[in-house]
């Protein structure tokens, strides 16, 4: 697949959203051409979708095909954060409605002629659900991977404290790689995902203390990640309480061992969605996209094949 980088206007004046646009290198299959919009989990970035996307491109068939896939960086994550640094310094809470509005703003600029399928993970999945609630019939279908859907306001106090204590800088790439590869949290990831996190999730920053070379710092600073956790307080609950309003075909993929999104929780809160498919990935946790991208993609392939007849001719209504 080929990739180009694009910068779009965000929903708020002056802010920018960076996206990677992926297209097939070979002629698309004869199936329904689709535009995929991918939204990542909190603390991460758009490039982590690439192993999953490679498998999706390789398995398109006569039922569906990918015309283009747009993977976004949230406004305070990845390359978007690097462009929006003046806006996010000192931000302590980031409502999830902000990400939803940015998604809709990018799609309006994109003006895709194809049915749009939203694919999200964790915070990104909930943001896509919020986007569809804000602007119904934007998406021809949604695939929510372990979305964070609280039933009551959740301040996330402990996870915010833990996130703000997280290590965020290293002397060089070798030091960063040694840290990530030996850390139990990251060592469980697929090697392709971990490699992309190290190559694309860090940026050089001048130490300002006479150091001979810049240090490497997470593009998504811990303060930005913790602001998103704080911002879940009401926006996640709104999404949960309004799931019944989503009319497009919607699939929920959860990890069997997911702590924030147990399968039984998803089954309970999604029962009133008119067109809903659910699947559970055996032995997987919350970070199934990072730990098992191929198995995740295989579930997506099944969802897309199932949804293909329903998506034919869909045009987004912004």
UniProtKB/TrEMBL annotation:
Pfam families assigned to the protein according to its UniProt record, in alphabetical order: Abhydrolase_6
Species per Swiss-Prot/TrEMBL record: Coemansia javaensis
AB hydrolase-1 domain boundaries: 36-298
The protein's name: AB hydrolase-1 domain-containing protein
Lineage of producing organism: Eukaryota, Fungi, Fungi incertae sedis, Zoopagomycota, Kickxellomycotina
InterPro entries xref list: AB_hydrolase_1, AB_hydrolase_fold, AB_hydrolase_sf
